Amino acid sequence: MSDTVAKPRDISRVEFIVLVAALMALNALAIDVMLPALPYMGEALGVSNENERQLVIGSYMFGFGIAQLAFGPLTDRFGRRGPLFVGLAIYLVCAFAAIFAPTFGILLALRFVQGMGAAGTRVIATAVVRDRFEGREMAEVMSLTFMIFMAIPIVAPGIGQVILLTGPWQYIFLFMGGLAAMIGLWGFLRLPETMHAKYRRALSFTSVIDGFRIVLTNRMALFYGLAGTFLFGAMFGFISASQQIFVELYGLGPYFPVAFAVMAGTIAVAQLINSRVVRRVGMRRLAHTANLAYVGMASVFVIFALLGPVPFPLFFGMLMVIQFFFGWAASNMNALSMEPLGSVAGTAASVFGFTQTVGGALIGTYIGQHYDGTLVPNAIGYASMGALVLICVLIAENGKLFGVGAQYGKPAADAGH
Fold first, then answer.
1. Is the pLDDT at 9 greater than 80, yes or no?
2. Residue 195: which residues within 8 A CB-CB, separation 6 or more?
3. Is 346 among the domain residues?
4. In the Cβ-directed half-sphere of 365, how many Cα atoms lie within 13 Å?
5. Could you please report the per-residue DSSP string of 155-196?
6. Which residue of 27, 74, 105, 186 has the smallest Cβ count within 10 Å?
7. Rounded distance, CA 289 to CA 272, Å?
C-alpha cells in the first residue's frame, strides 16, 4: 500500500471488502430482483410488447451510466463519503416513489433517476478500493469484492420470486428501498474517508477537463476500460433476455431463479479462484487467458445456435463456461484500467463506469431487442464482444499478450504510458 494513500484505522480489511461489495450489490439488486416481475409490471401498466418490458432494466442502466461522469469529479473534490450518501438518498427516494408509479413511462423515469443515484455507489466503491490498495493486491481485493457482490445476482431473482408470492410487484421496490437504507446506515457509521486531503482537486472546468485528459490519454487504462465495456455489453444483452430465454424458450418457469443463481454463482467461483492466484500469476496473464477462452467458447456457442435448437444441458454448459471466464476477465481488466490512475481515481472510476454502463447498456439493449425466440442473437453478441475485447487488449499492450507490465500506482505514473 502506497504511503500517499489515506489509511483508515477504524474498519478492518474484511469489513471494508464486505461493505464495498454491499454498496456495489445495490446496483445488481436493482436489476436482477426485477426480472421475475417484468411480466406483472407489463400487465399492470398496459405494456403488451414483451421486449419493451426490458426497458425497466435499460432505463435504470442509462441513468446509472450517465451520472457517473458527474460523480467522478465530485468525489475527487469533496471526498468519497458526501457524494456517496447523496447518491444513496436519491436511490432510496426513487425506490419508494416507484411503488406509486401510475404509468409505465413514469416508472421508467423513476428507474432512470434511481440509476443516477446508484451511480455514486459504483464510482465510489471503485475509488475507495484504489485509494487503499494498488497493484496485484488491488486486483485481489477487487476479486474478493466482486465475489461477495455476486451473492446478490445469485439470490436476487429468487428474492423477487418470493416477494411476488407474498404480494404485488410494488413490494419489490419496498424491499429494495429498505435494504438501501440499511446498507447506507452501515456505510455512514463505518466507512471512513479514504481520500487523502492533498489529492483533492478543484471543482473547476479546467481541473475537471484535466482529470478527464489524464484518464483518456493513458492508452493502457483507456483500452482496458473499453474492453470492460464490451464484456459488460454481452452480459447485459443476456440479462435483458434471460427471463424470455429461461422461461419462454426453455420452459423453466419457477426454476428460472435457480438457473440464474447457478449462472451468477459460476462468476463468483471465478472471482474466488482469481483472488487466490492473482498475486502469484499476475493480472495480465489471467485476464488474457480468460479473454481467449471466452472468445473460443463463444464461437462454439454461435455454431450450435446457428445449427438449430440447442438442448438445455448443452446451452447451459456453454453459458457457464462463458460466465466463468467473464468473471475471471472482468475484475482483472477493471484493475488494469485503474492501476495507472491513482491520483484521479474518482474521475477514472466515473469515466470507465460511464463507458462500461452506458456503452454496455446500449450494446446489451441492442442485443436484447433482437431476441427472436432463439439463442442466435445472444450467441453472436458474446462472440463479437469477445473479439472486440481481444482487439482492445492488443492495443493496450502494444500487440503483446501475457506480459507482466510496468508497476503503476503512484501519482507520478499517471501522465504517461
1. no
2. 6, 75, 76, 79, 80, 127, 131, 345, 346
3. yes
4. 17
5. HHHHHHHHHHHHS-THHHHHHHHHHHHHHHHHHHHH----S-
6. 105
7. 16
Give 24's Cβ-side CA count (13 Å radius): 25
Q: How far apart are CA 142 and CA 104, in angstroms?
A: 37
Smallest CA-to-CA distance from 134 within 1, 297, 36 is with 1
Number of domains in the chain: 1
- How far apart (Å, rounded) are the C-alpha atoms in residues 226 and 245? 28
Provide the 3-class DSSP secondary structure of residue 30.
helix
For residue 116, the surrounding DSSP H or E stretch is helix 104-132
Q: Which domain holds residue 375?
A: 13-405
Question: What's the half-sphere exposure (Cβ side, CA atoms, 13 Å) at 367?
Answer: 31
Helix residue spans in 201-310 (DSSP H): 205-216, 219-243, 256-281, 283-307
Residue 56, all three cell numbers: 425497466
Whether 375 is in a domain gets the answer yes
Q: Which residue has the cell 483533492?
A: 200
Q: Does residue 410 register a pLDDT over 60?
A: no
pTM of the model: 0.71
Q: Looking at residue 363, which CATH number applies to its domain?
A: 1.20.1250.20
State the DSSP code for 39: H
- DSSP secondary structure code for residue 12 in this structure: -
* Residue 6 falls inside a structural domain: no
Q: Is residue 4 part of a domain?
A: no
Query: The C-alpha cell of 241 is what?
Result: 433476455
| Residue 8 or 405, more confident | 405
Closest CA relative to residue 130, chosen from 184, 195, 190: 195
Helices (H), ranges, 9-102: 13-32, 38-44, 55-66, 68-78, 81-98
Provide Rg for the chain, Cα atoms: 20
User: CA neighbours within 13 Å on the CB side: how many for 241?
Assistant: 26
Contacts of 82 (CB under 8 A, 6+ apart): none
Q: What is the distance between the alpha carbons of residues 148 and 409, in angstroms, rounded to a whole number?
A: 25
Note the pLDDT tens digit of each residue in 278-316. Answer: 878 888 889 999 999 999 999 999 999 999 789 999 999
Query: DSSP string spanning 299-354?
Result: HHHHHHHHHS---HHHHHHHHHHHHHHHHHHHHHHHHHHHTT-GGGHHHHHHHHHH
